[in-house]
Amino acid sequence: MTANDEIDTGRPHPARVYDYWLNGHSHYEADAAAAERVVQVWPGVVMGARLNREFMHRATRWLVREAGVRQFLDIGTGIPTEPNLHQVAQAIAPETRVVYADNDPIVLHQAQKLLTGSPEGRTAYLHADFTEPRSILEAPALRETLDLGRPVALSLIALLHFITDERGAYEIVRTLMDALPSGSFLVVSHATADFDPDLLTRVAEAYQSTVAEGQIRSSSEVNRFFEGLELVDPGVVVAHRWRPDGDVQPDITDAEFPVYGGVARKP
């Protein structure tokens, strides 16, 4: 069965809804309709998708420049949107190696766009499910691309709010981090209702009724993902306030972009 055969175009998928908000071209009518339902509730979601992407770029640049990371495992990759993580990292250190993982067939179909990196580095793509972490860690493509004896940055961008406690969100992150050596990092961005509970309740209802289940978490609940790790300053903060640079608009309020971001090191 080909990737196209597996794509259910009548059912919206988080990766394709996100692609719509980022003005991409890899979504279907059902995805656009679901995305627009969320926009009607939260007009700022399109800006939020862009700001979330910029957080990933800043965190990646910091990890490569300041922390010396040369290996990344990005789970919940989504549909390729340039610059992708490997392009950001390899622009600084061409020898960087990146493994992407996602469970949407359309990402698999477009994976070639994720595999064109610098000649000095390497990129690989796994069609895998975050809720089955052992299948990711034991995948030959991961073992062939990354050296798990050296530090790896685990990147979970806008993924964990789709994984409920009942599905083992905390345990899955722990399993993945336990497999990585000292000096590895965890990068997380996660939606929250801390600043406007009514808005996020309505967004969650609009999203979960058509796209996917999930769980919006508070600051303390997001911090739990980093237990046992050393948070990088400024800690877990609204993502556009994490080491802002010229890309960030200073007049954006926390309520307009209710997404936490954080980076932490495994001691």
Polypeptide structure, described:
The model is unreliable at 1-5 (pLDDT under 50). Strand 1 (71-75), helix 5 (85-92) and strand 2 (97-102) form a beta-alpha-beta unit. The protein has 267 residues and is α/β, with parallel strands linked by helices. It is 36% helix and 15% strand. Helix 2 (14-21) packs across helix 3 (29-41) and helix 4 (45-65) runs parallel beside helix 5. It has 11 helices and 8 strands. Strands 1, 2, 3, 4, 5, 6, 7 and 8 form an 8-stranded mixed β-sheet that branches. The longest helix is centred in the N-terminal third of the chain and has 21 residues, at 45-65. The chain has one domain (3-265): Rossmann fold (3-Layer(aba) Sandwich), CATH 3.40.50.150. This is SAM-dependent methyltransferase.
Quick summary:
The protein is of the alpha/beta class and 267 residues long. 36% of the residues lie in helices and 15% in strands.
Given as residue ranges, the uncertain stretches (5+ residues, pLDDT < 50) are 1-5
Order of helices and strands: HHHHEHEHEHHEHEHHEEE
- How many structural domains? 1
Classify the beta-strand content into a percent band: 5-15%
